[in-house]
Amino acid sequence: MVEFNTPSYTAMDRKYHETIEVDPVRSNANIEKPIIPIGELGQTIVEVDPTGRHKNMIQVAQAAIRSGAKKMQLMIQTQPGSPMGGLKSHGKEVREQMREVFKANEAVLEGIEMPTAMSNLSGYDPQRGTFDDEKLKQNMDEVKDAIRFAADVAQGGEVDILSWEFARPLFNADWNKDGMFEESGEPMVQVVDERTGQIQQWRVNNIEKVPVAKDPNTGKPYVFIPEIGRFAPVDENKKFDTEYVGDGKYTVTQDGKTVDCVDKLQPWTWAQYEEWAGKKGITPEEYFAQQQAETQVKQARGWAATYREHAKGTHDRLQLEKTKLKQAQEAGNEEQIRESQEKIAHFNEKYRQEVDSLESYEQQAAENEEKAKFLKPIGVYAKNRSVDSYAKLGIAARQETVFNKNVNKPISVGPEIGWPHAYGGHPAEFKELIHDARSRMVELMTNKHMIDAQTKQPIMDPNTRQAVKNPYFEPGLSRSEAEATAKKHIKGCFDTGHMGMWLQHFKPELPWEQRVKEFNAWYMDEIKKLAKDDIVGSIQLVDSMSGAHGHLPAGQGIFPVVKAAEEFKKNDFKGFMISEGHEEEKFNEGRILVETWKAFNAPIGSSYGPGAPGMRNLQDRYQGQTYSPRMMFGGYTPPFGEYKPWAELPFE
Predict the structure, then answer these.
(1) Terminal CA-to-CA distance of the chain, rounded, Å?
(2) Which of 4, 133, 388, 390 sees the fewest Cβ atoms within 10 Å?
(3) Angle ∠(320,323,326) on CA atoms, nearest 5
(4) How far is CA 537 from CA 261, 366, 412, 437, in A?
(5) E strands of 47-165, at which residues?
(6) Looking at residue 468, what DSSP letter applies?
(7) Beta-strand (E) ranges in 326-403?
(8) Does position 632 have pLDDT exceeding 60, yes or no?
(9) Secondary structure E strands in 319-435
(10) For residues 11 and 238, what is the distance between their CA atoms, to the nearest angstrom?
(11) Predicted confidence (pLDDT) per residue in 126-183, tens digit
């Protein structure tokens, strides 16, 4: 009796006469409906293959296509500004060939990820402790190159930039009021001089060690700065000063009168800084920086006053010696003349040095006084720069989409959710950055004049004193049309592995299993918020076995990567999903895709049914089975005429 639901078997198939059941352990396939079809799950490819197997990105793309990838994201590795490599090193013919490779294989290059060395669009340079306009311009130019490359090769798609916009602590973030996340080290707070981009930073623990005294009348605290031995008043209506009188004590004076003697100075907590700064409508670190600047002004003016007195005394002595010289000359006293001339030369030099010192301290006082006006919290200053940069790149993506004839799908730009150590790494920050960038893009496209990102006032030309014209303005574009355009051209890239890195800071006091369980619950709560908001254009599927940065295929780690992707799909996610789980390629090439397919219930294998070979992983299969045949096969077969079975039996 013929059994029609079984495939054909040959003598080359081991156990071909036996029925092979589907392995329930290694296959959890649902043939009715995979979570996400194979065609929608692609992989990342690199600009330069680190293993040396492939010489260029075309070969890397071809290898991925042969492995079964239909959708790909290109990862750029060349650092911004590098004289060699990068997208600029691929000319017209190479771009055309790459485009043809994708077209011929019905594959798609969905997007481009900029190199990790770029890491922000604020111009933040942590090594130099500054925000650098030149660095920002270089990064912007690199992204514009990527936009044009996406137009030439992919005919559209997404360009994303790793978002480490600026360093920020965790302890005082709005989304961490319940203290769910802990710092891995001593928290730092920063302010920036918005004129120069220079950053000032302090450890919070050091700030809290600054002792304080109290107003004897009101009991309110005011800050003592040990470095200069002065108190900075908190209550602006009262002016205090102190003098160290020995034995660990300071006299406190008000309007020149001693009102207290302080011998027990207590640390001022961060909460107290927040309380007093809040009354002024500024951040605690901004308040502390202004107090320091004010104290430096007082110190500089104190030294200036000292040198003014010295200079006055030297000037008086100089005039006296000039009088003596005149008298000696009239009397013809040569010895007195020489002595007076030497003293006059000495006093002239001394007077000049004292005046120089006086002017130097006056200048320091003026500079610190002016500087205090421009010290801004880093969070406000840097975020505005990032928002403005993404908005302008969104406009560049729109222009390339509209005017490049090769483009057949929208080009978008946006941040890739970063790591916990910097702004842009938390889901709330990721969301805020995208929404604010879209709003800024709408402002740029609908206003005739340039609007300051922070003050929302027209930017004035210092020479003409006229409002600066806006080169991004599009006449006739309504606000609703601009908003729709901004949504289309500014989208974020969500990396599930970066999200998992928050486990490093999550409730470290809990036992590991409980900690992971509670963290994954928080993880999915945040995913649900993001999935309901139309801000994500692409998802990088990455897993890890801990809170460290890892690149395991989905399902090979401890995070709910599959559930996260499924949640996005439930909310009508229209973007693309890419596996970035390349870290297990060293164990078996192809795991980046195959393990991801398996995790999403869409594995590759033979048919189902009685008598059929079991469902196995593609990378483990050999001509339909999970084991190798007993004879030479495929490329190992000797030339025709020399072939013999291992048993040396005739074929008949």
Answers:
(1) 25
(2) 4
(3) 150
(4) 64, 50, 8, 15
(5) 71-75, 108-113, 124-125, 130-131, 157-162
(6) P
(7) 375-377
(8) no
(9) 375-377, 411-416
(10) 101
(11) 889 999 999 999 999 999 999 999 999 999 999 999 999 999 999 989 999 889 999 9
Q: Which helix (H) or strand (E) holds 35?
A: none
Q: Cα 63–29–45 angle (5° rounding)? A: 20
The phi and psi torsions of 62 (rounded to 5 degrees) equal -60, -40
300 touches 365 (CB < 8 A): yes
Q: State the Cα–Cα distance between residues 541 and 551, nearest whole angstrom.
A: 9
* Strand ranges (E), 8-67: 41-46
3 state SS of 478: coil
Q: How far is CA 52 from the centre of its chain?
A: 30
DSSP 383: H
Q: Is residue 246 over pLDDT 80?
A: no
CA distances from 226 to 217, 250, 273 (A): 23, 12, 17
451 Cβ contact list (under 8 Å, min separation 6) = 443, 444, 457, 458, 459, 470
Q: 3-state DSSP call for residue 428?
A: helix
In 3D, which of 498, 629, 497 has the Cα closest to residue 14? 629
- Give the list of residues 6+ apart from residue 306 with CB closer than 8 angstroms, or none: none
> How far is CA 240 from its chain centroid?
43
List, as one string, the DSSP characters of 146-175.
Answer: HHHHIIIIISSEEEEEE---SB--STT-GG
Distance from C-alpha of 341 to C-alpha of 647, rounded to nearest angstrom: 119
**Alpha-carbon span 414 to 435, nearest angstrom:** 11
d(CA 404, CA 397): 10
d(CA 576, CA 157): 10
238: left (phi over 0), alpha (psi -120 to 50) or beta: beta
Q: Which two tokens stand for residue 441?
A: 């893009």
By C-alpha distance, which of 528, 606, 542 is closest to 571?
528
